[in-house]
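Priority: medium. Attachment 1 of 2:
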């Protein structure tokens, strides 16, 4: 299956055949499926997660009297791994999944529902929250990709005008469907309390008196035809411990698509943050974020704390993937291509100046105000009947 997915992503001919044939098939089947306007299908991060913005909206709908009597279904890659109170489960990409999608009157996802196809019934409401701002080239801007078509999405969340224009260009989202509200997952970042930070420090086992460096790199494309998506950051962690261990711990979080982390052992200095379902919990507890080309930087900018770009493979990444804006433009004075410079920067960091930089990042790339959940729920209400 992994090799097939890789082929679909990297071969235009296979993409076209897949989209045409299976889109037609499910549109035809849909003619015979009775729709339930009060059934909602949720999916998060290709079925590998029970969280992110879809979960925020799911929990909001369950609490709201307007949605009394609605049926909720979550799609997972492996349904046995997740317990979901108040919802049924279905296996992603199974026949049952596609039949459920055709039957459901509302779709909520942060990636896609149609698995690259085009079969959404006309009366189905499709709300796509997205799962991050448009940092790197994605969608049809990627090499050998021309299969992204979100023109049937009824609402697509955008972080900013910068974000909105890229979504329209690279995902074929209709301009009128884009809404600059941020994403529901990020709403809680506008209301972080010291009590919550203390609770999270205990949860992650962070020693009292230590500050937290969150290292959250993006994923790298597969080097073995789709068998794995591994990452091996060029970090001498003993050096990091020696140089920074008296003051900091390193909280390590891999991208949700990364399947293998090489060269990293977790201990009392390097803490595993990848198993945490809610990425915001790792952001809230961090005093400094180190990333590379991940849009997590824009989420973190809401907190207005220091951001460092560790771009150890910058030239290679620009050639193989590319960015929507130059890294040195996004993070002036905070981009480094080797670990020694990152460590030196942390030692010599002027916190006040770094906070000013983060505020500018927030102003340009995040125009939201922490109200995305309400905007999304109000949209669903306005397009459905009680």
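Attachment 2 of 2:
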């Amino acid at each position: 299956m992994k090799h097939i997915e890789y082929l679909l992503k990297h071969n235009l001919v296979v993409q076209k055949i897949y989209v045409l044939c299976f889109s037609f098939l499910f549109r035809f089947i849909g003619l015979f499926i009775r729709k339930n306007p009060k059934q909602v299908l949720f999916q998060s991060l290709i079925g590998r997660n029970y969280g992110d913005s879809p979960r925020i909206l799911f929990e909001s709908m369950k609490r709201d009297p307007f949605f009394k009597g609605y049926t909720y279904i979550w799609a997972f890659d492996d349904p046995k791994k997740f317990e979901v109170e108040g919802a049924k489960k279905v296996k992603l990409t199974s026949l049952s999944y596609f039949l459920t999608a055709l039957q459901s009157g509302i779709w909520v996802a942060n990636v896609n529902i149609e698995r690259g196809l085009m079969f959404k019934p006309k009366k189905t409401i499709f709300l796509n929250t997205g799962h991050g701002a448009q940092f790197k080239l994605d969608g049809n801007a990627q090499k050998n990709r021309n299969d992204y078509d979100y023109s049937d999405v009824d609402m697509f969340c955008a972080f900013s005008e910068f974000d909105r224009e890229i979504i329209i260009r690279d995902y074929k989202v209709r301009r009128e469907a884009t809404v600059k509200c941020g994403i529901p997952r990020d709403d809680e970042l506008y209301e972080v309390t010291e009590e919550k930070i203390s609770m999270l420090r205990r949860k992650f086992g962070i020693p009292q008196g230590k500050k937290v460096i969150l290292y959250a790199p993006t994923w790298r494309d597969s080097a073995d035809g789709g068998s794995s998506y591994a990452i091996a950051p060029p970090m001498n962690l003993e050096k990091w411990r020696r140089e920074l261990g008296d003051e900091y711990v390193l909280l390590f979080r891999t991208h949700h698509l990364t399947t293998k982390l090489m060269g990293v052992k977790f201990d009392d200095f390097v803490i595993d943050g990848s198993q945490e379902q809610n990425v915001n919990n790792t952001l809230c507890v961090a005093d400094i974020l180190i990333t590379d080309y991940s849009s997590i930087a824009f989420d973190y900018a809401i907190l207005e704390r220091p951001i460092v770009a560790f771009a150890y493979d910058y030239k290679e990444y620009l050639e193989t993937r590319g960015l929507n804006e130059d890294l040195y433009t996004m993070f002036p004075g905070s981009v480094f291509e080797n670990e020694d410079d990152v460590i030196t920067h942390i030692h010599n960091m002027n916190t006040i100046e770094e906070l000013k930089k983060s505020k500018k990042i927030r102003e340009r790339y995040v125009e939201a105000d922490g109200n995305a959940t309400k905007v999304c729920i109000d949209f669903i209400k306005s397009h459905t009947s009680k």
